[in-house]
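agent: user wants the full assembly modeled, not chains individually. Plan: 1) parse entity lines 2) check alphabet per entity 3) run joint structure prediction 4) return tokens. Steps 1-2 passed, two entities, 1082 residues total. Proceeding.
--- entities ---
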Amino acid sequence: MKIKSAKSSRFFSVLPSRLFFLFTFLYFFFSGSHILFFQEKTSLFIFSSDFLAESIKQPGGFLVYLSGFLATFSYHPVCGALIYATILWMIVVFSLEITLAVSGSKKMLIPFLAGLALFYLQLDYRYLLFNNTGILLQILFFWLSVRYLKGFIPVLLLPLFYFLTGGFTWIYLVMFSAWLLRQRPEVWLLKIISLWLVILLFFWLSKEFLFFQPAGTLLKYPFSESGTGSQIYIFSAAVIMIAFLPLLSAAGKKNPFRTQIFRVPAVIAGSALLFILLSVIAVLRYDKKINRYFRVENLFYQGRYQDVIDYNIRYPSGNILTLFLNNIALCETGRLNDMLFHFRQSPDGSTLFLKWDISGEISRRGGYFYYTIGMMNEARRWAFENMVTRGMTPEGLRLLIRADIINGDYRTAAKYINILKNTLFYRKEAREYEKLLFDDRAVDLHPELGGRRRNRVRVDFITISGDPLINIERILATGQVNRKAFEYKLAWLLLTKDYPGISHEWNKLGEYGFEKVPVHIDEAATAIKILYGGQFVPQGQLSLNPDTEIRFERFLQVFQAYGNNLKAARPALKKQFGNTFWYQAFYN
Amino acid sequence: MSTTLKLITSFSFLIILMLGVPGCKTEPAGDLTESDRQPRISPDYTDIIIPCNIAPMNFVVKEEGSAYFVRISSGNDIFIRLNSRKAVIRIPLRKWKALLSANRGRELNIDIYVKQKKSGWIKYKTVTNVISDAAADPYVTYRLILPGYERWSDISIRQRDISSFREWPLIKNSVADGNCVNCHCFNNGRTDDFLFHMRGNLAGTYFYSGGEFIKINLNTPEMKNGPVYPRWHPSGRFVAFSANNIVQKFHSADANKVEVSDLESSLLLYDIGENEIMPVDLPEREKYMDTYPEWSPDGRMMYFCRTPRIGEIYDFRQTRYDLYRVPFDPASRLFGEPEPVFCASEEAKSISFPRISPDGRFLAMVYHDYGCFPVWHKEADLVLLNLETFAIEKPDLNSDFSESYHSWSSCSRWLLFASRRDDGLTTRPYMAYIGENGKSGKAFVIPRKNPEYYNTFLKSFNLPEFSNLKIVTGPGKIRNAVTSGAIQAKWGGK
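--- prediction returned ---
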């Protein structure tokens, strides 16, 4: 009976923390996969001593290295969810242990509040994993300091700990100082003074002699506002709660509900409240748009272009980056000008091509447009420039490898392959690429790279970074048949309602291997023919589709039925003709 | 806790046991198969002449095998035996140093044995290198930078002791607000004076002397373009600069992906003592673009690259530079009449980076198809101009990829240069022996402790320079220098 009671008591004592773990794990796995995806794709962990040496060249570097190692497992969402949830759970559990060590009993409030705040923060995809890892390490070091590290050992270990965790060490310093102040163990004052003297001395040595970093970086790194997803206030609140945990735990009065009679109902009620709070946070913080964007990006990186299109049909988006990737997918599947207006488009062309921009969000993705139209030098330039400013990423390296293999720059590709071979989840793919090195025939026969090599831009010209359209014109001016570049030019003409341009390019459709006229070109040409009679006479083997003419007549009839009033006719036209060139031409 | 302690103790014991057990001997035994070829090793340290003060030339055996044995000897003396289950061969520093110092001027033999599962031990043909009696300058300074196009992030100028693997930063842009640092230059490599430029919000030219930095603003309102490529006069009194208006373009399909060229350039002279900067007043200089100054060892002649000034519309492929020189009188700071020394344009070629050996016998320069920025030109090679006969020689140290920036050691026997031969993208510090007759040995990359280091390291070793003195700066010094106000140079032009 006693054993049963003890088991039951233990079950209830760990119920909230287990509930916390289970909830966060399930959330990250089912609804937070985009967070895992983003963090995995924005860094690259390399298993090599050189990478380790490069990573730990400044205080806090080890923390970033460790977090990078953990984040790499997000390649498999179940592992990522497990890691993210475990870190949060450990923060709560060891915070509880600290309250026990400080006050003699576990105090739930602050540990769970801090846990909830950190969970809230982590649901922003830009909140990087090293934040929670850093906080966890402070808690662990503090716990070790008060439980096992006797005398001045924590003081002596402090420089090492600062070197490992950088700016996060300040949390530990406040925690340990607060604990010394509150508990007043033997020589507590000397310990506090020596603690701060040691850290200040080490900081000064670091600044003047050891590390080529500005004082601000040495104080904070790896903490940064952008690394918290610009959630600085909530992050500060969570950090303050944890830093003063020893004081706050000790300050609390004995909880009347801790008596055995009230214990179980209190735990159940507390767990229910925890569940409600977790649910509220989960609902409030779930960003459907971002989740969907990253889903598209994930499909895109896998080269599943048809799935990208299908997903965007199912979940229409107004996000420029989503539409940019979708347009590439349309071009890759040869339907850019059949389906361009099935999706929202920006009249200034920014959904077609991204202009050169220093911002990471643009340079991370802009190169894929050039990759698609066969400008491999430009594709690799975008990818490389992004790597210079943002560091190595798996997708950046993959793009560099593919572009260099297509270009025949095998030695350069080999370097990137060597790096990718030292990763955990991309090594298999790297070995596949390695088989292609210095083997032109193997590249030519490769299902993806072979075709791209055949279609790559071969005639050299000077590129204009700021104007993708000029680059397209220059490709087409070389006389090389580059259907994808031509498709983009047509799409641009459609977007800008360039009727003379469309009429002019019609004659080249056969030249670029079109066996039927793309739907939107047909729509535009029909409109030109009917509205500007006689200005458009189809040349070559391709002719206008008579059905399109009938559809356009219907379009005009609907418009006329609303007294030629653009605003009044819009709902009806959108319903029937929303994905046609005509609707786009009328309303954009 | 006791269980944890037991676990830790057991684990530690296991580790100690594993470390303590002597490794299986992998020395060749039994029948040997002799191969009639040399083994493939990376980096390629075969058939080379090496300085007697070089660090251990660690390498990876690129032959399949389950065990490897390496014997390094000179004459009949075997100095080093290494066996390994892996193909990575790391040579102990002390033994290597003893070997080199005891055998200067003699051959260095490397016997490599590889154990293969089916055929047993194979002995490859001995790799024979030569230990030169001439020591190279012990320090090499370079800038580490990702070979990007427009952007930069982490840039540092570092110094490396070539007799060991020690490397340390002189400057890192992380303490300078992320500004670009470039174009370091030594005062002959024999003093601790050196300078570098910084761009951006902390712009200036930083002169380092006697352990202190002085920040000088060399730009004056009279100058159209700021000073770029420096060259210190042998007296230490002057620094010649070229002032360039540089642009870059990107090729859509060419193997040379980037095109860097000058729209304008001219030469400047900075008098350090007077803190005065002035134009190098050459006759009809407005008709030309002059760049890349270089001094003769006696300081009485300045060499430079020259091409006719380009118009508003120009073809960068037709811009070709010739080598000129002009007499210089250090006392009066006056220049004489320039004369052509080597007209590369007559061969439809261009030259850049003239560098004269300290003994004054050879001028090394980069020889390429056009323009003045050879690092992005695959065809760029180093050539030697004999300054007695004015004959050009293309040494054996070149490759199919770009060879560009170079530096002579003070004994004139070693040429250090940046080469992109490894991967076509990142420059690596290669060096080669240059004989008294101008014939070169085969080039080799400066060894690293991890011989596979260069395979994955993405940064370029930019502007490698030999020097004789070790320079130690520190983050505090750099920070103080960059945050201090710049001393304004005076304009000495007419």
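agent: reporting back. The interface with chain A takes residues 146, 148-153, 156, 169, 171-172, 174-175, 177, 249-255, 257, 259, 422-426, 450, 453, 455-458, 474-476, 478-479 of chain B (CB under 8 Å). The CA atoms of residues 44 and 355 of chain B lie 27 Å apart.
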